[in-house]
């Protein structure tokens, strides 16, 4: 494989501050994998990598057919049936890591060295084909549709070991830029109604790869969780999320307060570990955050993740979810990070039993105020042991 210079591409919409913006310090390179899937490299502001990257020379089978959607008429929710996901890799050894840079002995998904890489999932739940389907509205019996949209993998590091919490602040800043870039581009896809960056961390959560990574789902519908939020906003009023942030920022459950962001344990936390964080400004998604907001976020997010890991003697499994406004709905919906973990003690996990799993009626095991005290102490220990670098 001979090196080839890839063309740097700007983040979409790099214009006025009221729209999606980009950081010119983060270089973006585009390429295609051997089966046509898109691959993007995001290079750190302080990268040591040149723009020359090897091309993917593998002989790959055709991409799987787009999955199907089926509607549950009792809830109105759409279920994706993605049979190709049954064949995905399950906890491979380090020398066969599919997210590491390719070597002669490891024909992985990424052809060359990288800082942060994003590529289309080989076995997606949504996409690759499909158009906007207005028939997803309403409720009926045995309704089916194409599972349009897109699924992407976000690799936080070329190294097999580590986590997002172990990255440098510069690397965290690059990851945030990748989330913002992909949110802007995927939101412009006609079939996409909502973009969801997230990270599953730890075997207790169900991860199939140890390599530090997250995912982005671009849904062809507005998710049930967001539908519930929209219902609450219609009932309360468009200031709901702003009022929640104001109450929490001036209350007893704050974990970290910055100039642009506040992280806190919510009043009605469900999980043993549950954190929410919102920007002080009313922005719908990561693509609309300012460069100053992203710079501060890179430090606060690292402190939160390192604090969660310092809570116990071993790293804590979690789900980190970026709740963003639907593509065509912004009024009252503010960007929010939610981190949850089922770990309720050093050697105990919370499993969803009958009330939570069947009825959606939650019972919290730990009082929210106890969470706050324990998490503050853990963040302080992490700050002492591994201070976050200045931006």
Automatic annotation (TrEMBL):
Residues 239-332 form the Galactose-1-phosphate uridyl transferase C-terminal domain. It catalyses: alpha-D-galactose 1-phosphate + UDP-alpha-D-glucose = alpha-D-glucose 1-phosphate + UDP-alpha-D-galactose. Residues 1-24 are annotated as: Disordered. This is Galactose-1-phosphate uridylyltransferase. Pfam families: GalP_UDP_tr_C, GalP_UDP_transf. Residues 1-20 have a biased composition (Low complexity). It comes from Demequina sediminis. InterPro entries: GalP_UDPtransf1, GalP_UDPtransf1_His-AS, GalP_Utransf_C, GalP_Utransf_N, HIT-like_sf. Belongs to the galactose-1-phosphate uridylyltransferase type 1 family. Keywords: Carbohydrate metabolism, Galactose metabolism, Metal-binding, Nucleotidyltransferase, Transferase, Zinc. PROSITE patterns: GAL_P_UDP_TRANSF_I. Its EC number is 2.7.7.12. Pathway: Carbohydrate metabolism; galactose metabolism. Gene3D superfamilies: HIT-like.
């Amino acid at each position: 494989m001979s090196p080839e210079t890839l063309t740097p591409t700007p983040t979409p919409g790099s214009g006025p501050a009221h729209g999606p913006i980009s950081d010119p310090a983060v270089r973006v390179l585009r390429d295609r994998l051997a089966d046509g899937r898109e691959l993007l490299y995001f290079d750190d502001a302080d990268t040591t990598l040149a723009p020359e990257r090897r091309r993917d020379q593998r002989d790959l089978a055709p991409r799987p057919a787009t999955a199907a959607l089926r509607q549950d008429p009792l809830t109105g929710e759409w279920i994706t049936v993605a049979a190709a996901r049954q064949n995905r890799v399950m906890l491979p050894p380090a020398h066969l890591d599919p997210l590491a840079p390719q070597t002669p002995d490891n024909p992985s998904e990424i052809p060359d060295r990288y800082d942060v890489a994003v590529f289309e999932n080989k076995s997606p739940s949504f996409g690759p084909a499909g158009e906007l389907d207005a028939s997803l509205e309403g409720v009926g019996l045995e309704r089916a549709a194409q599972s349009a949209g897109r699924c992407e993998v976000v690799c936080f590091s070329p190294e097999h070991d580590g986590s997002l919490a172990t990255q440098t602040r510069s690397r965290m800043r690059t990851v945030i830029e990748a989330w913002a870039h992909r949110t802007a581009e995927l939101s412009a896809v006609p079939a996409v109604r909502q973009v969801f960056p997230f990270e599953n961390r730890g075997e207790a959560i169900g991860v199939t790869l140890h390599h530090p990574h997250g995912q982005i789902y671009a849904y062809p519908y507005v998710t049930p969780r967001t539908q519930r939020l929209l219902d609450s906003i219609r009932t309360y009023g468009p200031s709901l999320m702003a009022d929640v942030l104001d109450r929490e920022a001036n209350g007893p459950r704050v974990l970290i307060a910055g100039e642009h962001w506040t992280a806190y344990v919510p009043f009605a936390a469900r999980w043993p570990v549950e954190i929410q964080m919102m920007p002080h400004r009313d922005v719908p998604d990561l693509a609309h955050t300012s460069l100053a907001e992203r710079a501060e976020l890179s430090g606060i997010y690292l402190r939160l993740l390192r604090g969660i890991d310092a809570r116990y003697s071993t790293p804590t499994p979690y789900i980190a979810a970026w709740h963003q406004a639907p593509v065509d709905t912004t009024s009252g919906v503010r960007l929010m990070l939610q981190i949850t973990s089922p770990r309720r003690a050093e050697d105990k996990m919370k499993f969803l039993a009958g009330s939570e799993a069947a009825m959606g009626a939650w019972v919290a095991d730990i009082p929210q105020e106890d969470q706050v005290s324990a998490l503050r102490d853990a963040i302080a220990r992490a700050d002492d042991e591994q201070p976050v670098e200045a931006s």
